[in-house]
Amino acid sequence: MTDRITIRRPDDWHVHLRDGAMLALIARHTARQFARAIIMPNLTPPVTTAEAARAYRDRILAALPNDAGFTPLMTCYLTDQADADAIAAAHEEGVFTACKLYPAHATTNSAQGVTDIFALAPVLERMQAIGMPLLIHGEVTDKSIDIFDREAVFIDRILRRLVSDFPALKIVLEHITTAEAAQYVAEAPANVAATITPQHLLINRNAIFDGGIRPHAYCLPVAKRETHRLAVRKAAVSGSPKFFLGTDSAPHVVEAKESSCGCAGIFNAPFALESYLRAFDEDGALQHFEAFTSENGARFYGLPLNEGTVTLERVEIRVPDRIGDDALSVVPFHAGETIGWRMVD
Ligand code: DOR
Ligand code: ZN
């Protein structure tokens, strides 16, 4: 049995670091495990300009120790007003690594998202030309579509057409949760990839209703039935270069989760690598762990692999019930449980 594993320092290709006091509380957990991260732009107001992205990047760096060795990779929140020239200029300058498509009203702070992605054809054409990735929250928002079907319907109604209209556009279908998504991405051309969260490898939708309603197991896209979890997990541990790590760590203060209308989002940053490693270990796929955490994403984005390593060891450590203090606290994924692994400092 392997009790210790050392891998090239990994990256998180999808994370919410928030702002203000929350940023100050949580950023170090991501910077501890990852060298770089793709930073989600769904702040209030959303990050839609290069100026806002530069300022946010500075706030992230200011929230970390000087020697954190962490690079935030910023994204542009697409709106119906997105401008191809401004986006291309910010990409050229190195401010925007990618653009994020939130279908309007799909999730937290997406009200200013896109109402018709095909109306943004000039932006998508430019992104395709300059090799700038489009990161997609892949759910339709049609209220008549069952919440558990929204990802599969998005693939059929939107994604297939996007891939055919923009055949060279780099697309990341974010946080996939279904067998349909895993199969679609596996069979799509090499410029279409997907990120996978730890929660979608480890929980199915029963976790949200386990003996009562469990707000800390609720995120979007919502966890699906067991057959889907198994399909997503098979894709993650397969060794395919199309699938890579993106935690979607999305903290909300405990009061916002434990509420009559609890926010979507699972805060998995403090033990993210441990969660993923548990899945790879259980599936006898440790030989594919490093590619998933530290190689596939960088190669897809066309960025160099990181220098340095991180080590995890097999050890039973209890995940704390809360991160933070009375003024601001967040319940982490696996709160009160043991995962079986811990990253060594
Ligand atoms: O669960 C989620 N939380 N899904 C998202 O798409 C957004 C995120 C958030 O920002 O809280
Ligand atoms: Zn997200």
Automatic annotation (TrEMBL):
Active site (catalytic residues): 248
Catalytically driven reaction(s): (S)-dihydroorotate + H2O = N-carbamoyl-L-aspartate + H(+)
Cited CDD domains: DHOase
InterPro entries: Amidohydro-rel (IPR006680), DHOdimr (IPR004721), Dihydroorotase_CS (IPR002195), Metal_Hydrolase (IPR032466)
Gene3D superfamilies found in the cross-reference section: Metal-dependent hydrolases
Domain of life: Bacteria
Enzyme class per UniProt: hydrolase
Protein residues bound to Zn(2+) 2: 100, 137, 175
Every Amidohydrolase-related domain range: 12-310
Pfam families per the UniProt record, alphabetical: Amidohydro_1 (PF01979)
Cofactors demanded by this protein: Zn(2+)
Pathway(s) of this molecule: Pyrimidine metabolism; UMP biosynthesis via de novo pathway; (S)-dihydroorotate from bicarbonate: step 3/3
List of residues binding substrate: 16-18, 42, 137, 220, 252, 264
UniProtKB keywords: Hydrolase, Metal-binding, Pyrimidine biosynthesis, Zinc
GO biological process entries: 'de novo' pyrimidine nucleobase biosynthetic process; 'de novo' UMP biosynthetic process
Positions contributing to Zn(2+) 1 binding: 14, 16, 100, 248
Molecular function GO labels: dihydroorotase activity; zinc ion binding
One cellular-component annotation, GO: cytosol
Record text on cofactor binding: Binds 2 Zn(2+) ions per subunit.
Enzyme Commission code(s) on record: 3.5.2.3
Residue numbers bearing the N6-carboxylysine modification: 100
Complexes and interactors: Homodimer.
Matching HAMAP family: PyrC_classII
Role noted for this protein: Catalyzes the reversible cyclization of carbamoyl aspartate to dihydroorotate.
Entry similarity comment: Belongs to the metallo-dependent hydrolases superfamily. DHOase family. Class II DHOase subfamily.
Protein name in UniProt: Dihydroorotase
Organism: Sphingomonas dokdonensis
Gene: pyrC_2
